Fold this sequence. Notes:
Blueprint: E1 6-14, E2 26-30, H1 38-46, H2 54-73, E3 78-80, E4 84-92, H3 99-103, E5 113-122, H4 133-139, E6 140-154, E7 167-173, H5 174-180
Parallel strand pairs: 1-6
Antiparallel strand pairs: 1-2, 3-4, 4-5, 6-7
Helix pairs in contact: 1-2
Amino acid sequence: MAVNSIQFPVDFVKNNNANSPGYAKFYARAHNAETLTTEGLVDHIVHHNCAVGREAIAAVIKKLSECIPELVAQGQPVKIDGLGIFYPTVENKASGIMKAQLLDSSVNPLDVLSGIHLRFTPQSDQLNDLTSKSFLKQSVSPVVNLILDPQGIDLTPTESDPKKKKYATAKATLQEFRAAQGFPENQGA
Length: 189
């Protein structure tokens, strides 16, 4: 693995579904960090020694967030080099529509639609290949965390509104977990 690769957090969560064949086993999932806001993204770009100022970066991101959905809604895919392609798709009802119904003026052919979606396909070249195993091999170093209490720990005093409660999830790194179990540092790594 590359020495300067990005550390990618991977959580291992215990399957607590007794009806599942994988019951009591741990499964990997991508760690879901807090979503980065536009301001956070602007700050990140600025710290990469960008040639333009903070205001210009923020303005371009704002325009992108307005223009991409507008263009895709008009059926126009948008490719951003090095990132990928945003494009529309149509979801049909399972019933479909027959040719005779398309010709029948009393039938609205759009009734077959159940949704229109904005989709994204990452660009697949060099280290930008976000959808393949090569991304794991070339770009990131997974860092393992164990989710020890998937239900979470209630951090709030008793309240009448459960939506106001805040939860923390008990986590440990793989090394911390193994040390707590009495395993030597280098065993099973």
